[in-house]
TrEMBL record:
<feature type="domain" description="Peptidase M12B">
    <location>
        <begin position="240"/>
        <end position="393"/>
    </location>
</feature>
<feature type="active site">
    <location>
        <position position="388"/>
    </location>
</feature>
<dbReference type="GO" id="GO:0006508">
    <property type="term" value="P:proteolysis"/>
</dbReference>
<dbReference type="Pfam" id="PF01421">
    <property type="entry name" value="Reprolysin"/>
</dbReference>
<keyword id="KW-0732">Signal</keyword>
<dbReference type="Pfam" id="PF01562">
    <property type="entry name" value="Pep_M12B_propep"/>
</dbReference>
<dbReference type="GO" id="GO:0004222">
    <property type="term" value="F:metalloendopeptidase activity"/>
</dbReference>
<protein>
    <recommendedName>
        <fullName>Peptidase M12B domain-containing protein</fullName>
    </recommendedName>
</protein>
<keyword id="KW-1015">Disulfide bond</keyword>
<dbReference type="InterPro" id="IPR002870">
    <property type="entry name" value="Peptidase_M12B_N"/>
</dbReference>
<feature type="signal peptide">
    <location>
        <begin position="1"/>
        <end position="32"/>
    </location>
</feature>
<dbReference type="InterPro" id="IPR024079">
    <property type="entry name" value="MetalloPept_cat_dom_sf"/>
</dbReference>
<dbReference type="InterPro" id="IPR001590">
    <property type="entry name" value="Peptidase_M12B"/>
</dbReference>
């Protein structure tokens, strides 16, 4: 993909027909910058190397234009539900790589458990009964042909992952810092998932050889700490539900904001859920969020440091105690615990490096080992969480077009 939008790929807004030619030229230049000239107000987006800027529209099932307003929440009040049924499709279109892509999505009704609980540990507050109103999964269409799968959140324009059938993954998110006038298209950036990004930290050298060395070191750690016997593979395809606890540390709250962190985690888990619905995985796996714990201050008994091994050991012990306390009530018991942190993790040493996650191999059925830690890197975090869950589930090899690459597990 080129390093910026081209006029053939970024659709400008509709303009009055009698604009003077010079003004028309200026308007088109505003909405369709030449290659390499798009300027991002946001520093992180400005560092992207392989991207396109697109202008999605909301359309109906026949692809007739409805609105440039992309935000959609399922109505919360019963009296409003007739407007858009929960199982109804939403449709979005935009041009990418010279093709018109059509996202046909429905609400991910299985994202949250019926007894989902949010806990904020500072004030000991609990909230139960939240519903997913704006996180969707579905298909990528080009004409009548299905080109892949999509997991996207419509709470803040379009934010999610596009997984194409030929094996490439792209992220989509709104361009940050752009002042949008009412009725005008909202620019979004579509950028390719970098395989090295899964291993490398943004602040350290991301040379492929160095990143692969870190991954090999990570796998050696997992083999040393893993079980001695391989779990037998099942020949039948059985649908599974993985009830998931997510814990975010105080640095996450500081970075994303107290009011935004829950929705951010919903978006990430929605993408993880979409990745686990890839047909290449085999067994259908449903990722269900049963509990989200937001740590607003450091917790006694939980040590989150650069040293990934020590952080994982501490978190696994801490999360097991949570499940032990919930033995009398199954509402918030979890199958796996996921820690998300802004701390720069590193396997084997207490300093920052390229490690993005760590987990125990085939630990899912062992309460003290069914846990993983993950470094937040934005939307690519979804692949880190999915990859670490894969180790816990004892997948020997992820398909290249699915969640990751061969891990050499044993």
């Amino acid at each position: 993909a080129p390093k910026g939008p081209s006029c053939a790929r970024a659709r400008p807004p509709l303009l009055p027909p009698l604009l003077p030619p010079l003004l028309l030229l200026l308007c088109l230049r505003t909405w369709c910058a030449p290659l390499g000239e798009f300027t991002f107000p946001d520093q992180r987006q400005g560092s992207l190397q392989d991207f396109q800027v697109v202008y999605p529209s909301r359309v109906d099932g026949s692809l007739r234009f409805l609105s440039h307003d992309l935000l959609y929440h399922e109505p919360l009040h019963q009296r409003d539900r007739w407007q858009v049924p929960a199982d109804a499709s939403l449709h979005y279109v935009f041009e990418h790589d010279g093709r018109q892509l059509h996202l046909n999505v429905t609400l991910n009704s299985g994202l949250l458990s019926a007894g989902y609980v949010l806990e904020r540990q500072q004030g000991k507050t609990h909230r139960q009964g939240s519903r997913n109103t704006c996180h969707h999964t579905g298909d990528i269409l080009e004409g009548a042909a299905v080109r892949g799968a999509v997991a996207v959140s419509t709470c803040n324009s379009l934010t999610g992952v596009l997984s194409f059938s030929h094996g490439e993954h792209y992220f989509i998110e709104p361009v940050r810092g752009v002042v949008r006038t009412e009725g005008s298209p909202q620019p979004h950036v579509v950028y390719k998932r970098d395989p090295i990004q899964r291993l490398a930290s943004a602040c350290i050298s991301d040379a492929p050889g160095h990143a692969q060395s870190v991954e090999r070191q990570r796998e050696r750690w997992q083999r040393r700490h893993g079980p001695r016997r391989r779990i037998a593979q099942r020949s039948t395809s059985t649908e599974r539900w993985v009830e998931t606890l997510v814990v975010v540390d105080p640095k996450m709250v500081q970075y994303h904001g107290r009011d935004n962190i829950e929705n951010y985690i919903f978006s990430i888990i929605n993408m993880v859920s979409g990745l686990y619905h890839d047909a290449s995985i085999g067994n259908p796996i449903n990722i269900v969020l049963v509990r989200l714990i937001i740590l607003e201050e450091d917790q006694e008994g939980l040590k989150i440091v650069h040293h990934a091994d020590k952080t994982l050991a501490s978190f696994c012990k801490w999360q097991k105690s949570l499940n032990s306390r919930e033995e009398e009530s199954n509402a918030t018991r979890h199958d796996i615990a996921v820690l998300v942190t802004r701390k720069d993790l590193c396997v084997g040493m207490n300093r920052p490096c390229e490690t993005l996650g760590l987990s125990h191999v085939s630990g899912m059925c062992q309460p003290h080992r069914s846990c993983n830690i993950n470094e937040d890197t934005g939307l690519p975090l979804a692949f880190t969480v999915a990859h670490e869950m894969g180790h816990s589930l004892c997948y020997d090899q992820w398909p290249e077009r699915g969640i990751g690459t061969s891990s050499g597990l044993s």
